[in-house]
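Work Package 4 report. The design task specified in the project plan requires that, given a folded chain encoded as structure tokens, an amino acid be chosen for each position. We show below one input record used in the internal validation round.
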């Protein structure tokens, strides 16, 4: 087609695994390719190709994101022991998200996709709650070891002059055990805090930050201190002028506050907390397939993805030749988010308009009763029509 929208700079395209890989291909075929002359630099992050390349492809995709500035990622498998044996992997490769996030640093912002008729499970939530997840360090880049009975584990810090400070973690005299070492960087925590403060100001919403400094008196307390220092020195006046607030609270208190809130705020979390709580919020707002996710790097890189996993249950049905009613909205919005950002950076208004139009008609379709099975179970819209994956994508394309 001669009237397709032309792109100037490629997107970094990171393909994934199982059912989301199928959804990925169908989104391109049905919704994107008819309207956009897609220009991407492709990386296959399937578990088989990560194993074949000894996970080099994952780091290559992160470096390409630094080169081109915008990436869109399909959900990949993070193998556990059972999956590694099932797929016959050489080893249990680390989370590709962890590898990419460590390379790009930054913050992952996750927000629910709202549609009339999809009522949150928490009745008081009348406004979206956005999660800001620190995308560096913690358990995702931790080192671990088994410790035999009779051994001991120590935390050893060696300074620039070679002087060691040793802290006993545990004497394993009574039993075998396990040990883990995690880290973070002041520079990354500061970038995380800065990105959160800037996002809250831009959106005009309150910022909450939660951790567990009463128990983790050094690690978590460092996060608390950096947020507090930066707020007092750089953002307090701007927040007060905007009429918004920042406060810190313990993570368990934050949970209680969130459940009683009306929503409409940014909740900043450490890496693991953000991973868990974003899934909780997505489900409570309607569906894991109804949440956007974007990594914003302090260096100006953006990586868009769906917040959910690879949907193996639907994939097994697909392999049998059965039709599935898989919800593609989060993956579709990953593509539209990336295309809109590419359009902004390259000054292509028609690409921005196209991306926003897809998002608009997708929500319109759901609100008019055209939806996948997961949404039909919770939607209050009358005369719902449950569509298969292909049917839903064709419905969206027909409205563009």
């Amino acid at each position: 087609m001669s009237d397709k929208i032309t792109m100037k700079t490629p997107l970094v395209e990171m393909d994934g695994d199982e059912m989301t890989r199928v959804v990925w291909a169908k989104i391109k075929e049905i919704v994107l390719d008819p309207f956009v002359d897609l220009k991407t630099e492709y990386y296959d992050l399937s578990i088989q190709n990560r194993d074949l390349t000894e996970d080099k492809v994952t780091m290559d995709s992160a470096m390409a994101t630094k080169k081109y500035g915008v990436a869109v990622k399909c959900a990949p498998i993070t193998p556990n022991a059972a999956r590694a044996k099932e797929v016959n992997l050489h080893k249990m490769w680390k989370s590709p998200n962890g590898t990419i996030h460590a390379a790009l640093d930054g913050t992952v912002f996750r927000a629910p996709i709202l549609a009339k008729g999809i009522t949150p499970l928490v009745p008081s939530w009348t406004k979206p709650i956005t999660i800001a997840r620190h995308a560096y360090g913690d358990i995702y880049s931790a080192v671990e070891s088994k410790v035999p009975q009779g051994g001991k584990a120590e935390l050893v810090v060696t300074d620039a002059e070679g002087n060691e400070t040793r802290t006993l973690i545990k004497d394993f005299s009574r039993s075998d055990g396990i040990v883990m070492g995690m880290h973070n960087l002041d520079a990354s925590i500061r970038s995380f805090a800065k990105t959160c403060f800037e996002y809250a100001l831009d959106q005009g919403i309150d910022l909450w930050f939660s951790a567990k400094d009463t128990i983790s008196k050094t690690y978590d307390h460092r996060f608390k201190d950096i947020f507090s220092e930066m707020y007092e020195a750089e953002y307090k006046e701007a927040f007060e002028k905007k009429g918004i607030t920042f406060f810190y609270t313990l993570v368990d208190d934050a949970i209680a506050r969130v459940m009683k809130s009306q929503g409409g705020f940014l909740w900043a979390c450490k890496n693991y907390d953000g991973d868990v709580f974003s899934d909780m919020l997505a489900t409570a707002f309607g569906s894991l397939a109804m949440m956007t996710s974007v990594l914003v790097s302090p260096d100006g890189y953006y990586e868009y993805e769906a917040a959910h996993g690879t949907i193996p249950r639907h994939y097994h049905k697909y392999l049998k030749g059965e039709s599935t009613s898989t919800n593609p909205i989060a993956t579709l919005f990953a593509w539209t988010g990336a295309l809109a950002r590419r359009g902004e950076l390259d000054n292509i208004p028609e690409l921005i308009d196209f991306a926003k139009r897809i998002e608009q008609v997708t929500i319109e379709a759901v609100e008019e009763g055209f939806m996948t099975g997961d949404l039909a179970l919770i939607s209050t819209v009358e005369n719902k029509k449950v569509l298969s994956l292909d049917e839903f994508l064709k419905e969206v394309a027909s409205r563009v």
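The CA atoms of residues 156 and 162 lie 11 Å apart. Validation will be extended to a larger panel in the next phase.
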